[in-house]
Design a protein that fits this description.
The structure holds two protein chains of two kinds.
Chain A (H helix, E strand, L loop, with lengths): L15 H22 L32 H4 L12 E6 L5 H16 L6 E6 H7 L1 E2 L1 H6 L7 E6 L2 H14 L4 E5 L5 H14 L3 E4 L12 E8 L15 E9 L5 E8 L4 E4 L28
Parallel strand pairs in A: 1-6, 1-7, 2-4, 2-5, 5-6
Antiparallel strand pairs in A: 7-8, 8-9, 9-10
Chain B lengths: L6 H7 L10 H14 L7 E4 L3 E4 L10 H15 L12 H10 L10 H5 L11 H9 L5 H6 L2 H6 L4 H15 L15 E11 L2 H21 L2 E12 L4 E12 L2 H12 L8 E13 L16 H15 L4 E6 L9 E5 L17 E8 L1 E4 L6 E6 L2 E14 L16 E8 L4 E7 L5 H4 L3 E7 L2
Antiparallel strand pairs in B: 1-2, 3-6, 4-5, 4-6, 7-8, 9-15, 10-11, 11-12, 12-13, 13-14, 14-15
The chains are: A alpha/beta, B alpha+beta.
């Protein structure tokens, strides 16, 4: 699409009437672009903002799907994850597969605080081979009722994507989750359109090597991080720590955070370096995070 | 020429006769296919011997313009397929068999089996050859005189009472004094609707329209009877005598035509219509009671959506196969791999308790052996090697001791050993669920303990 905008600067020395006209044009354009991008318009200071124009981000049934961490929420459009959009989650390395899944379940846990319904989980057999099959008692321990999970076990990406789309089109589920080795742009576009049509969120767990472009609203990379000891037993592992990297976010700001997930309360928390200093010396993270100033955290 | 004639005799009569090897198996197969094809008239069909078919047309004749119309249609269509047919129609299977093979009026009047049978030879009673020969020797060449004989006198003529009884049974069956059960080729569906098409149908769109009408009519019948179908089959009878079938299955009894159509629609494109379809038949093969239920007034995100979820499960199951759509269900067992079961996705309502002990998100089907460096006798590992990668353990929690279920091992040669589970975190923050099988104290009795990795945490 070619969008042509006049090159005249906004603060031009034109007459007041011309300036207000220009403002109106700009405001209109902003709304149109926002509508195309599926978000609320920003920098809207137009005096005659169109009242009847519906903005997709302000749909009445948008769920309050937040991290509960201000730093992350402010990076997202409207301060929340789009509840009618596709979200990509990929592990940083092969061994981070379970961490990516843990993050995915954490998001599901946060979502289910606001909506209750069945969840379709399309399991790829390669994940079962690598890390085992989904385990009900473990999900229950995480606060997710396994009875609400409909499991689909398939061995091909095509089938996973088909099942996900079918689940989204049913418009009766509270979320759809799928594990794929790779999904091309067309597939992710189809899924995100189905998400938008049915106002159902979808989470796509990708392979760590999958670098294809995606039409997802947000794209996350997850790496496990050494956590801190449990409060009452310093030898026992405490809450899981993840390094989250928001690599792509439509209408938001990409960023990276080191978070701690609390299974019991279902809360995220930024793992601040100071709070995590315990008496025992912490080993330095082995992998380096280019450009991140949080590498000493944890 | 006649059946059973020697080939040389036939050659003497017609020198340039074409000879083919007999292939009884293929013949039987073809006959079976033909019996199948006859299900366009009635569901109650089967083969009879090596060269016959029978159809129970009770309640079906009016669809084809009466008995005469049905017989004419059948013979005409069979001729079209390249078969010469000798029809016989009567109240009893025995009389119909006799007419088909030994002539006479094609259709016996209701209740007048004896009249139809009277002029036919005694062989027409399906007797074994010895009995038939004996009757002929006694001068009873046709059935008429045989029927006039008193039963007791007739029975005494035979060598054994069994033989006499067999002959009387055949007579009774042909006349209709005794019931003769016949089994159909396929189980007879409880509900079915059919549609004959004036012109052969060639397109999938046309089939869709036909399917709509059939589904509406079938679902109407099901609603009247307060039943729901679990599986449906669409039979498309093609002009060339073949039958194309597509079947769908549903997790719960249903009678919503829209839902059923969506399930059919996926397969409808794959159906081979050949040179056209002349009759379509929709059968409900598995039917269960389904009481009418009130439609929810408030359609929220969870209430009233059970049906929608069931329909989704059906769509997935029909495409991917039913065993692949599952739900998890808890099972009363302390052994981790036995604590959950995969059940059909329609079975909901299992109550999961929050486990008091840590449990992994993913559990390996088969625990994988690992090499471990750990203090003896009882302490968590300091380092372990899984899939050829050494991992330093930073923190560990445990042990959680899980004893084997002794009541399952009575009389079994291989005894399970006690397991000590540890939750460990390595230097990279990844969390694993490990266990040691066996105790160092019992090393002499049950061998050295072994370490396994059983699952991963998020």
């Amino acid at each position: 699409m070619n969008l042509c905008i006049g090159t005249q600067p906004i603060h031009s020395r034109a007459s007041p009437s011309a300036s207000s006209l220009q403002q109106a044009v700009l405001s209109d354009l902003r709304h149109r672009i926002a509508a195309i991008e599926g978000r609320a318009p920003r920098y809207d200071d137009g005096p005659n903002r169109p009242a009847n124009q519906s903005t997709p981000a302000q749909e009445p049934n948008a769920l309050n799907w937040r991290f509960g961490v201000q730093a992350i929420d402010t990076a997202l459009p409207d301060g929340r994850l789009a509840s009618s959009g596709l979200h990509d989650i990929a592990p940083d390395t092969y061994g981070d597969g379970p961490a990516a899944m843990g993050f995915c379940l954490a998001l599901l846990h946060r979502l289910q605080a606001t909506s209750r319904g069945s969840v379709l989980w399309c399991e790829h057999t390669y994940m079962a081979r690598e890390f085992g099959a989904l385990y009900g008692p473990g999900l229950a321990a995480l606060g997710i009722d396994p009875d609400r999970l409909i499991l689909v076990q398939v061995g091909r990406d095509k089938e996973v994507l088909w099942a996900m789309e079918e689940g989204l089109r049913a418009a009766t589920l509270s979320a759809v989750i799928g594990e794929v080795a790779t999904a091309d742009f067309t597939a992710s576009r189809r899924l995100s359109l189905a998400c938008a049509d049915s106002a159902t969120p979808a989470l796509l767990l990708r392979h760590h090597r999958d670098t294809t472009t995606s039409a997802a609203r947000t794209r996350w990379r997850v790496a496990a991080q050494p956590g801190v000891a449990e409060e009452w037993d310093t030898r026992a592992p405490g809450q899981p720590h993840w390094f989250l990297e928001l690599t792509r976010c439509r209408g938001g700001r990409p960023g990276s955070w080191h978070v701690e997930w609390n299974n019991a309360t279902g809360d995220f928390r930024l793992a601040t370096p100071l709070a995590d200093r315990t008496a025992a010396p912490q080993p330095a993270p082995i992998r380096s995070w280019g450009g991140s100033n949080l590498r000493q955290a944890g | 020429m006649a059946v059973g004639q020697a080939l040389t005799d036939a050659r003497a009569l017609i020198p340039d006769i074409t000879v083919h090897q007999a292939n009884p198996e293929e013949d039987a197969k073809a006959l079976k296919a033909l019996a199948d094809w006859c299900s366009r008239y009635t569901p109650w069909t089967n083969t009879d011997g090596v060269d016959g078919l029978w159809l129970d047309i009770t309640g079906c004749a009016h669809l084809f313009g009466g008995e005469t119309g049905l017989v004419d249609d059948l013979v005409h269509r069979l001729r079209g397929l390249g078969f010469t047919a000798h029809p016989g129609l009567a109240d009893t299977a025995g009389t119909a068999w006799a007419i088909a093979r030994f002539g006479g009026d094609t259709i016996a009047e209701p209740g007048e089996q004896d009249l139809a049978l009277a002029p036919l030879p005694v062989d027409a009673l399906r007797l074994d050859p010895d009995s038939a020969l004996l009757l002929k020797r006694l001068g009873l060449k046709t059935i008429g005189p045989l029927l006039d004989l008193p039963r007791s006198t007739l029975e005494r003529r035979f060598r054994s009472p069994d033989e006499g009884e067999a002959v009387l049974t055949r007579i009774d069956q042909a006349i209709g004094r005794r019931d003769e059960p016949l089994s159909p080729l396929h189980p007879v569906p409880a509900y079915s609707t059919r549609m004959a098409l004036a012109e052969p149908l060639l397109t999938a769109e046309g089939m869709e329209a036909v399917l709509d009408r059939l589904l509406d009519s079938l679902c109407h019948d099901l609603t009247e009877a307060q039943k729901g179908a679990r599986s449906l089959t669409l039979h498309a009878y093609r002009v060339d005598g073949e039958i194309a079938r597509i079947a769908i299955a549903m997790g719960r009894p249903a009678r919503d035509p829209r839902h059923m159509k969506r399930l059919f629609q996926e397969r409808l494109e794959t159906i081979d219509l050949g040179f056209g379809v002349e009759t379509a038949l929709l059968t409900a093969d598995l039917v269960e009671p389904l009481l009418p239920c009130q439609i929810a007034l408030h359609v929220g995100n969870q209430s009233g959506s059970d049906d929608a979820v069931d329909q989704l499960v059906d769509r997935l199951a029909n495409r991917l196969g039913e065993p692949r759509i599952q739900r998890l269900q808890p099972y009363e067992s302390h052994i981790p791999e036995r604590a959950q079961r995969h059940v059909a996705a329609t079975r909901t309502g299992a109550a999961w308790a929050d486990p008091s002990r840590p449990r992994p998100l993913r559990l390996l089907d088969r625990p994988e052996p690992i090499e471990v460096i750990a203090e003896i006798p009882e302490s968590p590992p300091m380092q372990f090697t899984w899939r050829r990668v050494a991992r330093r353990v930073l923190r560990a929690d445990g042990p959680e001791r899980i004893e084997p279920e002794w009541w399952r091992q009575i009389g079994q040669p291989i005894q399970e050993r006690v397991r000590d589970y540890y939750r460990v975190e390595d230097r990279e923050g990844r969390r694993y669920w490990l266990y040691r099988e066996g105790l160092y104290q019992d090393e002499e009795q049950s061998g050295a303990p072994a370490w396994f990795l059983h699952g991963v945490f998020g």
